[in-house]
Design goal:
The chain folds into two domains: 3-205, 2-Layer Sandwich (Cytochrome Bc1 Complex, Chain A, domain 1); 228-416, 2-Layer Sandwich (Cytochrome Bc1 Complex, Chain A, domain 1), CATH 3.30.830.10. Helix content is 43%, strand content 19%. It has helices at residues 44-51, 63-71, 95-107, 113-131, 134-146, 160-165, 168-178, 194-205, 256-267, 273-277, 280-286, 319-335, 340-357, 361-374, 380-389, 392-402; strands spanning 3-6, 12-17, 23-30, 74-79, 84-91, 184-190, 228-235, 241-248, 291-298, 305-313, 408-416. The strands form two sheets. It has a six-stranded mixed β-sheet, with helices on both faces. Strands 7-11-8-10-9 form a five-stranded mixed β-sheet, with helices on both faces. Helix 9 packs across helix 13, helix 11 (280-286) packs antiparallel against helix 12 and helix 12 packs across helix 16. The termini are far apart.
């Protein structure tokens, strides 16, 4: 379990001692992402993440990048629907510099207008690159259809038009509102006693003033009253795709562990091609010749989200046949207990994947932060123990609770010839 300390300004610090190597991994998690945006500002959190690398008064653009590169450190950031996170894994003797850097940009980022205009082009290009992927196009549209009210339907990167219209003042206001010690937490894993890691972090962050509490989004998603269907068409050489999403509970729900195991049973849970090839969907769709690849996923999220099934069709295979096969495997998981040998295999894959992902200093810091961000668990060891305790009955019952017609969204991607005619994978409704 991490050692935890809450500062007077509301910042929560979590530290774990790890003697893997003489390094420290520092992760600063802000409770702001696509979930905190409204129409007209979609993609703002992601845009702002880019701007936090453009310097402060104390550290002009590029200064710390050059230092970290010289030290052999790794540093990065990401934005999701739920959070924005900044990370550095640095030599132990450079930990104080990493702390000073993160404390500085928590409230002192410049968000320079010239840099905003330059970065806008970068983000538009990033958006256009994503649009080249049929999986992204179909997934983004499916997510938008799945959520009528909740901002999860907006995704993370935002629409191209809204990215182009964002102003420096709007970005800076978003920054000042959300980048607060009382709207963040820090995870530190490294080569020192946890108490010392906390002491150094407190010395760096204690001087940062708290701000007004940030209200959570007030847009609960209403119950879905029936199946939703959508089709995305685009010219190009891509292959047809089927994606199916079912409404699923948040990370704090008692079903979260069982649904994580259900995704492993259907799509593989070991993070390797070998685990995927032994999964139910692989055997039913790939080995049978219906699909080139297939998968299942359940994400730990702050609010109720989605459980996904997907497949990329082999040329000439009908969407309806693949959709039927995906739904059939979901129905079988909801109808019968996993056989003893298969259940044991799924548990081994899940636990091995959990342990492997937490093996490095950086991996353990990420896993810890992700669980804390969503409220799924207080530590990696707690989550591991909950996975260990999942039963076959719980997996079946969880699948039975979400794999229902009225709560699903079905999406088909149909590639078109240059003249607009569909090819490969004739569309049809599965029966």
């Amino acid at each position: 379990m991490p050692l935890t300390r809450t500062l007077a300004n509301g910042l929560v610090l979590h530290a774990l001692e790890a003697r893997h190597a003489p390094v420290v991994s520092l992760w600063v998690w802000y409770h702001v992402g696509g979930r905190n945006e409204v129409p007209g500002t979609t993609g703002m959190s992601h845009f702002l993440e880019h701007m936090l690398f453009k310097g402060t008064t104390a550290h002009p653009k590029g200064e710390l990048d050059r230092l970290f590169a010289r030290w052999g450190a790794s540093f990065n950031a990401f934005t999701s629907e739920d959070v924005t996170c900044y990370l550095e894994t640095v030599p132990k003797e450079r930990y104080a510099t990493a702390l000073e850097h993160e404390a500085d940009r928590m409230r002192n980022a410049l968000v320079d207008p010239v840099e905003v205009d330059a970065e806008r082009n970068v983000i538009v290009s990033e958006r256009e690159g994503l649009e080249n992927s049929p999986d992204f196009l179909l997934g983004e549209t499916l997510q938008a259809v799945a959520f009528d009210r909740h901002p999860y339907g907006q995704g993370v990167i935002g629409s191209k038009d809204e990215i182009k219209l964002m102003t420096r003042d709007g970005l800076y206001a978003h920054y000042r509102r959300h980048y607060l010690p009382n709207n963040a937490f820090v995870v530190i894993v490294g080569d020192d006693e946890a108490e010392r890691l906390l002491d150094q972090a407190e010395a760096a962050f204690a001087r940062v003033e708290a701000g007004e509490p940030v209200a959570p989004p007030r847009a609960p998603e209403p119950p879905q009253m029936g199946e939703k269907r959508l089709v995305v068409r685009r010219a190009g050489g891509a292959l047809p795709i089927v994606q199916i999403a079912f409404r699923a509970p948040r990370a704090t729900d008692p079903l979260a562990c069982a649904l994580t195991a259900a995704a492993a049973a259907l799509g593989g849970g070991g993070g390797s091609s070998a685990s995927g090839r032994s999964s139910r969907l692989y055997r039913a769709l790939v080995e049978s010749g219906l699909a080139l690849n297939t998968g299942a996923s359940f994400q730990l999220m702050k609010d109720p989200h989605l459980f996904y099934l997907d497949a990329t069709l082999k040329p000439g295979v009908a969407h309806a046949d693949v959709e039927r096969a995906l739904l059939n495997e979901a129905a079988k998981l909801a109808g019968d207990l996993l056989p003893e040998r298969e259940f044991a295999k799924v548990k081994r894959q899940l636990l091995a994947s959990s342990a492997y992902a937490s093996d490095s200093v950086t991996g353990r810091a990420f896993r810890t932060g992700r669980l804390l961000a969503t409220g799924a668990a207080g530590s990696v060891s707690e989550w591991h123990a909950r996975l260990q305790a999942v039963t076959a009955d719980e997996i079946r019952d969880a699948a039975r609770g979400i794999f229902i017609e009225r709560s699903r969204v079905v999406g088909h991607f149909i590639p078109e010839e240059a003249g607009g005619a569909a090819h490969d994978g004739a569309i049809g409704v599965a029966r």
